[in-house]
Amino acid sequence: MTIDTSSTVLEASGVVAGYAGKTILQQLDLHVRAGEIVALLGANGAGKTTTLNLFLGFLAPSAGLVRVAGIDPARQSDAARRKLAYIPENVALYEHLSARENVAYLLHLAGQPAAAGAIDQALGAAGLAAPAFDRRVAGFSKGMRQKVAIALALARKVPALLLDEPTSGLDPQATAEFNRLLAALRAQGVAILMVTHDLLSAADVADRIGFLDAGRLREEVAAAGAERFDVRALHRRYGGVAA
Ligand code: ATP
Question: Which residue segment(s) compose the domain that 210 sits in?
Fold first, then answer.
């Protein structure tokens, strides 16, 4: 597949937004292209989840422009959400159903039913071990639940993925495995935006790291060279913002 990396899938330009008269995001400019991973870091309350809410259409900007694959999520939230997969910090699944049944049912709810073969392929591509496909998800770890959610995103073939704190609570091995999965999605052309407090993990996988401070993107740093990011320097500079 050829990826048109010039195409912006997630766009926020000059966005001002907030809740009940309280402005949270101030002139936010954030763009994620196809085949790109952007990590958004910032202190508690900086506006990271609010940014995700904008793309999900839960919040309308009072100024500026928000687009998901060219669609305004505030005006056409259903159409915009069809282009997105959202993976919250704790993935909610039907506990009494198996991994395979969850994906089948959630695809059905999304109006995109898929054949059993396609579901198994997605679960496999998401890194879930085959013996777990038929197990009830009630006993699944956070990492396994994320794989089920990623499988759903793969089966839906969405152009954009939003992740909220994906690696919090994952051990280093599960974090590395999850980041490899994100890199595989990037290679397929998915535009990925994740909000996180995990600078190390962001530096491992992101193409750009944005630092949000009181609703403003203070700076964006792009990966460069073999080391990608100077994590120690970033930590020194943004420790107060990113920690
Ligand atoms: P954290 O790292 O703690 O998740 P965050 O950067 O994701 O923080 P947001 O959740 O976007 O921050 O919150 C930004 C600000 O907006 C905070 O001051 C918060 O109290 C406020 N806020 C969030 N959701 C609402 C809401 N539904 N109604 C009113 N205020 C809200």
Answer: 1-83+159-243
